[in-house]
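User: Batch of two.

Assistant: Item 1 of 2:
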Amino acid sequence: MSSWLKSVFSLFGSKPAVIRGAGKLEEGFAKKVVFGDPLAGQGVEVILCRVEGQLKALDAQCPHEDGQIIEGPLHEGKYAVCPLHNFWFDPANGEVVNSACKRAKTYKVRESDGDCEIWL
């Protein structure tokens, strides 16, 4: 396990992080959420997506050449996009649907009362 990931776990332990107001995310859109301080190596950036009424989350770091998966409208209303090479990721499982790229890391999400919990 990398040192930055150990730092993230030390920040949150085995408890989920809470994203207040996540229920307001519109269908077919993605929003970046930052936990900790990724620039200092002690945090993580997550892309929260609403697809088919459900919240899904994947790591904002594209597994290909350090690109960044972006927030905003999802491609075709269901795929998160890394604009570096125009890769489209399925937020449910992290799979790339239009190229040969590694899977993006996904996170468990549970929505409740307009907020959501995410396990990092």
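Item 2 of 2:
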Amino acid sequence: MTGATDTPLGVVLAGGKSTRLGRDKAWLRFGDRPLLCQVAELLARVTGDILISGRDPSEFGLEAPWLPDVIDNMGPAGGVLTVLAATGRPCLILSCDLPFLDAATLDRLVAVWRRRPDWALMTTYRIRETGYIESLVAVYEPGGAALVRHSLAQGERRLSAIFPEQQRLHLDYSREDTALARAFFNINSPPDLERARGLEVPA
């Protein structure tokens, strides 16, 4: 077992083009802040240090270091490669389109990550009934950078395929756990946004 008691670097992936949504999801507002700011502030409460991947956050009034993608148009995997290669640190990586994520869900993930075995390059939640993994709420190890680079060169951009099951540490949860499932709800399309508005808790 890896005797880690430290905390991963928090990373928000914000370099996507939001093609399916048709508008920049980072600027969507849930409450009084753009979604990128909401996710970044949540992550900072859990990890302390954060980094924005893919764009300069100063346009959002957010003071945080950032990195442009080292390879363009590679989706989230390109952002994962960028931050692992540049920082050499374990990174708790989130997409910027998670309006209902909460600190308790992230704290639980980090607690399991701290007890990870040496073979684990990715620590993430998994739906028990389907095997689906939450690859954009996950901790990635710096040793995974070479794996991502090789896979991208071979045309594979799906993080669930890049990191095979034998190199993933899972926190299983049931899709019947509606509160946890809500935490992972992300916005990729206009129907997703409409549904998210319906899930908002009135102020």
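The chain has seven helices and seven strands.
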